Amino acid sequence: ATSSRAVIRGGGVRAEETVLITGIGGGVATFALQIARHVGARVLATSSSDHKLAKARTLGAFGVANYRDTNWHTVVRTMADGKGPDVVVDSGGGETFAKAIEILRPGGRLVTYGATAGAAKLEVRRIFFKQLDVLGSTMGTPSEFVAMLKLFSEGGLRPAIDRTFELHESADAHRRLEDGAQFGKIVLRIH
Fold first, then answer.
1. CA-CA distance, 42 to 182, in Å (whole number)?
2. Beta partners for 87?
3. Could you count the other beta carbons within 10 Å of the beta carbon of residue 151?
């Protein structure tokens, strides 16, 4: 529901737009990539893991950039026709959030649903001079949840499942999450 709300309601993503999904690999980001592709957007993704970037391509990402590269934002802008993305869906906060504001094209939209990288230091003038829309988003309403379920059940989308753990392996599942090694959702199986 967080992904659907961020892409559809918050980001207002439309066909032919370029969308950047930062921090690809987590469940919300992988859903966001799939939903944006489903509505016909060109999707770009960032991660610190080349393995996760390769997996993002298999889910339909048009282009990818490793944010450990100090010029990742230039690479993204170039992949977005040199003008920057129309929409950024960001989970990181911190420096990534500030760079997202910098690379968004004029009139662009930024949706944030997390701050794993901490607080952002940003130049506020970029927001109003570029006439950007910045929206915080999380979870969703019951009707948005139903719409998301319909999107997956009738739209042919399937969640990216990283790994399934037995319930007694929940500590291992938590360690995998803490390590940031997953690509997609982690499932606990209850017998």
1. 24
2. 19, 109
3. 19
For residue 32, count other CB atoms closer than 10 A to its CB: 30
Give dist(CA 83, CA 13) in Å, integer.
17
Work out the number of other CB atoms within 10 angstroms of the CB of residue 125. Answer: 8
d(CA 138, CA 187): 21
Amino acid 17 reads: E
H helix or E strand, kind and range, residue 154: helix 142-155
Here the tokens at position 130 are: 């570029």
Helix (H, G, I), strand (E, B) or coil at 56: helix
Q: What's the rounded Cα separation, in Å, for the pair 119 and 146?
A: 33
Full-prediction pTM beyond 0.85? yes
CA distances to 10, 21, 65, 73, 84 from 70, in Å: 29, 18, 10, 8, 17
Give pLDDT tens digits for 22-69: 999 988 999 999 999 999 999 999 999 999 999 999 999 999 999 999
Please give the Cα distance from 127 to 133 (Å, whole number): 8
